[in-house]
C-alpha cells in the first residue's frame, strides 16, 4: 500500500524506481539475503521466545541487528519479502525478485532452527548466572 501511495503521489520513472535490486550477481545477493535474514531471526528468536533472555533490551537487540544488517548489505537489503514484492507488483517489475523471496525465507527458517538447536537448558538465566535483570540491578543501586 505504501508503494501504491508513493506511485500515485509522485511520477516514478524507471530510473528512480524504489525497488530492491541486486548489486552484483544473483548468487551473491541470494547468499547475502540468507545470511542477514539468518542473523535477524536468530536474534529475534533469542530475545523474544527464550525466557532466559533479558526482555527489557529486546528492542535494542533487534534494532541493532537490523542496523548491522544494513551496514553489511547496504540499503539494497530486503530481510522481508513483502518489502520487495509490493514495489514489484505496483510497478510491474519482477526481475530478480526471487532472490528477495526465497533468500529471506531460507535465512529465517535456518535462524530459528539454529537457535532452537543451541537452546540447551530450560533453566532461567537468573539461575544460571545468579544475578537479576540488568535494568533492575541498575535501579536497585540508586
UniProtKB/TrEMBL annotation:
It is found in: Membrane. One of its GO terms (cellular component) is membrane. Keywords: Membrane, Transmembrane, Transmembrane helix, Transport. The keyword Membrane applies. Its main location: membrane. Coiled coil: none annotated. The keyword Cell inner membrane does not apply. GO terms for molecular function: channel activity. It is a multi-pass membrane protein. The chain crosses the membrane at residues 28-45, 57-77, 97-118. Belongs to the MIP/aquaporin (TC 1.A.8) family. This is Uncharacterized protein.
Amino acid at each position: 500500500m505504501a508503494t501504491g501511495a508513493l506511485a500515485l503521489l509522485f511520477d516514478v520513472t524507471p530510473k528512480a524506481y524504489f525497488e530492491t535490486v541486486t548489486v552484483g550477481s544473483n548468487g551473491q545477493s541470494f547468499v547475502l539475503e540468507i545470511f542477514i535474514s539468518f542473523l535477524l531471526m536468530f536474534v529475534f528468536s533469542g530475545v523474544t521466545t527464550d525466557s532466559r533472555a533479558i526482555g527489557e533490551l529486546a528492542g535494542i537487540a533487534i534494532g541493532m541487528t537490523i542496523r548491522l544488517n544494513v551496514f553489511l548489505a547496504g540499503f539494497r537489503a530486503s530481510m522481508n519479502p513483502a518489502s520487495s514484492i509490493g514495489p514489484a507488483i505496483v510497478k510491474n517489475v519482477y526481475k530478480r525478485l526471487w532472490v528477495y523471496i526465497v533468500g529471506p525465507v531460507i535465512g529465517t527458517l535456518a535462524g530459528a532452527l539454529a537457535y532452537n538447536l543451541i537452546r540447551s537448558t530450560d533453566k532461567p538465566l537468573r539461575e544460571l548466572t545468579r544475578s537479576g535483570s540488568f535494568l533492575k540491578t541498575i535501579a536497585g543501586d540508586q
